[in-house]
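Subject: sequence -> structure tokens, single chain

Hey, anyone have a minute? Need the predicted structure for the following. Not urgent.
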Amino acid sequence: MITDFLIPNIEDASNQFFNFDQLTFDDGSILTAVEHKNTILGLKIKVSRHTRTGTLSTTSINVGNFAGFSSRGKPALCVLEDGSVLLLISTVDADDKMQVNVYRSTDKGENFTLVSKQALNESVDVNTTNGYTVQQM
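Reply:
Had a minute. Here:
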């Protein structure tokens, strides 16, 4: 039985993809969230929904520039009991403090709304001298 797979994105000199997470819904559709690093547009979280009939819909959430890239992004998806989807994304401010933004979708990932810019009680220090590096959420 196949329990996990990644629908690939085409990489080139301008586009790279990192750190994905995905969900499969009861109707067989798949929601994938991935870091999309574009040399012109910066870092975004690309969320794609693939239905069993082949329909693809995509939305992107801006995460920022490449500074602090190693701790920024790291998308994580989960489904709540009411069927809504949460997307968690790490963000880094100008003081090298990491926080988690939470987005919610009530339409299986077609659209996301920011519901929290501070999911953690305290920000995490991610400075390059003595801070942490976020590897996965």
